[in-house]
Every structure is written in structure tokens, then in C-alpha cells.
User: What shape does this take?
Amino acid sequence: MFSSVNSVALFGMDACMVCAEADLSEGGLPVFEMVGFLGSEVKESRERIRTAMKNSGYLIPPKRITVNLSPADLRKSGSSFDLAVALSLLMSMGIFPPERLEGTVVAGELSLSGEVKQVTGILPMVLEAKKRGYKKFILPEVNALEGGAVSDMEVIGVSSLKQVVSYLQEGEDIAPTTVSLEDKLMERREAGADFADVSGQALVKRGMEIAAAGMHNILMIGPPGSGKSMMAKCIPSILPPLSVSECLEISKVYSVAGLLGEDGLVMQRPFVAPHHTISPQALAGGGVVPRPGAVSLAHRGVLFLDEFPEFHTQTLEILRQPIEDKVVHIQRAQGACTFPTDFLLCAAMNPCKCGYFPDRNRCNCTQVQVKKYLSKISGPLLDRIDICVEASEIGFNELIRENAKEEPSENIRQRVVDAVEIQKKRFEGTKLRFNSDIGVKEMRKYCSIGQEEEKLLEKVFSKMGFSARGYHRVLKTARTIADLDHSDEINTTHISEALGYRGIDRRYWSA
Ligand SMILES: [Zn+2]
Assistant: This one.
């Protein structure tokens, strides 16, 4: 007898419907074969499935058994097909009626004892099933909160093969898991770092506010102990609250990476801070079964690179493409897969090896050494950072101001949210989301300036020798500053401030 059960295969973040077909026929020697372009883990699942079925009380009859995972041109990897294959066999054996699995998709790994175990990538699988018009998804109980976040899908979490069979025989009733993402996002309160706890550093804070408002990449330069990491950790607290669609986008990446916590989903903007010894692959993503790297785990959040020049040159150069394209492509024999990488880059560095340049009383580095240190950040990479700020050493003045009340992140966030709203209206119907996304062609449309402003820019540019790219960056930053100011027009004040964030890196790198 022939039967089939729907399941989903994953390649990177892309899900694809798969059919687990089973056929039991009389005659010939009893064999159990599995075919359909299977990776080694899937081939190995045969014994696991047989044992899990036996330990759940179902002996596979001594017949000629063929299991096929179709379509045949798609390579299947991972252990998420176990449950679908087992159910397909049980259906062939007449254990439960086929109608019970109509319009239903199944995914889950089986243990030898017949338990249904967690699998990675449930969220993209359920989303794909929904897209294809399926109404019900049977999955591991541990993954239920994750799958349950998908609306209009009946998600049934199961813990053992026995339990699923009982459910399909209409014995045990299992209530569907539903999660209201709106409610969950409303109730979660971030307990992260807050700008209220950082004394002084008004310039850096201002730079970060602008960076957050327009999703501009930002670089902090300053001596050790100026609180650079502390301030970077505060950035998520001033970014707009997560929307439902962003929450799903981020959770999809973490689902594929197998990094979703007990909550079932990522409920906060990611803050990813890899150490400078990170390998290019761990940063960009990769592996035989492609997994997202740090740039994708930071999607819709912050990627913080401390000790920026200490990263391998090769690692740093890899960053350019995801910053530019907001996605990474990973090439594999079976095709390319894509992971999203739309993050806010926050980099921090000492100005030289010892950390005290340009304070010549304390810095013992030679001019050549300073130059060599700074040159590890290449021009093209620097060109992708719109805002450069100097963190000053916490001086006496700031220490005595310690009791002064610092503005809490929530207030700053409100201004950021307002500026983001303005951008939302501005870019309605386009692919752009933030001012930092404005391309050269759209410059005239979104960043037009008056004669006086034009003159100011011309004057400064000829004096400082900025590139065309630099010109656009100043305008984009000025656009965000004007938005924070609730001003439709970009005026000279906005431009002057934006120029200030470019002047700093000029001072170090062209010294
Ligand atoms: Zn030095």
C-alpha cells in the first residue's frame, strides 16, 4: 500500500515542500530502502525510525518497503524528516486513516525511544507551509512556541510518536499552540544597558542618536577606558521597538542557526559582538549545511566590532559586501543561499596601539606606527561608515558631574522613533527604509539643498578634499539630522553637524 506525508526541507533560509512517500509491497525479500537524493544524516535515519517505531509498539512488517523523499532533484539533509517518514509508514500499515493528515505538514526528529525531538528552522518551515496553503503543522512540542507565532496555522506540538498516532487515531486531543506576537512584543521590557548610566560623552551619544535614527554605521575612536563598549551596548535601547514582521525576520535567522531560546522567538533587537579573532566564515556564515554568521545574527540589530583594527584584514574586507547589499550569498554545490544582513555597524577603536594618540605626552607610538595601525581600516571600508565620533577620556569635569542626571534611553528613543516615522512616509512605495539607504541616483530627490548650503559644502569639500562618496554620506547624515529636527529642509546647521562627523576620521587618516 502506498501513502505520502508532507514535510519541508531547508536550504539556508529557503524552505521547500517535500513529500515522504512510503510503499509496502508483498513478495521478494524483506528490505527497507530509502531513496531521494539523501544526505548522510537522512540515510542514517532508517535505523533510527525503525527502532523508534518498534519502541512505540509498531513493528515494521517483513515486506518490501521503499521510502522516497521527493522531489528527487533536491538534496535533503538534516533529521527533520524522521517523523514524516514514520507517519508515512504507519499510514501504509493502516494504523490511522489518511484523511487525518490531509492539508497537514509534519516535521520532527525521532529518538530511538520514539520521542519527538527539536529541529532547527521550524519558523521558515511553517511560514512556507502557510504560503503553500496548508492549514495544519505537526511539530516537536519544544518547537511549538516558535511555530505557533505564525498566524492562521493550526500548530500541533507533540512529544512522542505514540502521542501523534493517538492524536491521528482521534484518541488523544491536542490543543493547537497559538502565540500572539503583538501581545508578547508589548509585554517584553528590555533590561539592557541604558544611556542614563553613562555620564558625559554627549558627543558620542548624539552621534549614536543620529546613527540609530537613520541606520547609519558609526565608528568610535577614543582611548581605553572611555566607555566605548558600554555606549555601544546602549544602542539597542534607542532603536525603535521591534515590529511583528521584524521579529519574525530575525527569528527566522535564529531558527535556522538553532539559537532560539526558551521564548521561542527573538523578542529584542540583536546585539552581536564577535571577538576580533573571529574567522571570516563565522562572521559571514557558511558550512556544508549553510548556517548564518555574525552579520546575519545581527540582522535588524547592532553588529559591534570592538578593537576594530585588530580584526584580520581579510575578515574586515568581507564586511564590505554585506554592508552594501544587506544580504550575504553562500555558494554551495547544490546552489546558493542567501541570509539577510541589514544591521547597524558600530565599530570602536583606539587611535593607536597604545591608545593615547594624538596626546603626545602619553602616546609613545611613532608616526609610522600610528599610520600603520590606522591603515588596517581600508579606505573603502571607512567609506561605508557615515558617522565618526571621538570618545573622550572621562575627565575630571565629567566625574564631578557624575550626579548630574543623564537623559534615559527611552527619551532618546522617542526622538529616534519620530525620525523613523518621517522616513517611513518619505520612502513609502519604494524599497528604501532609512536615509542611509539613499543611493546616488535618489540623492537629488531626497536630499536637495539650497544655494547657501551648496556653497558651504563646496567650500569645505575643496578644502578637505572629500571624495564624491564622502559628499553623499554627508548629505545623507544631514538628512537624518534634519529629520531629528523635524525640518523638511536641510539647512546649513544640519550640514555643519554632519560635516563634523566626517572631519574626525579625516583628521586621523590623513594625518
Ligand atoms: Zn600610541
The chain has 20 helices and 18 strands. The chain has two domains: 2-179, 186-509.
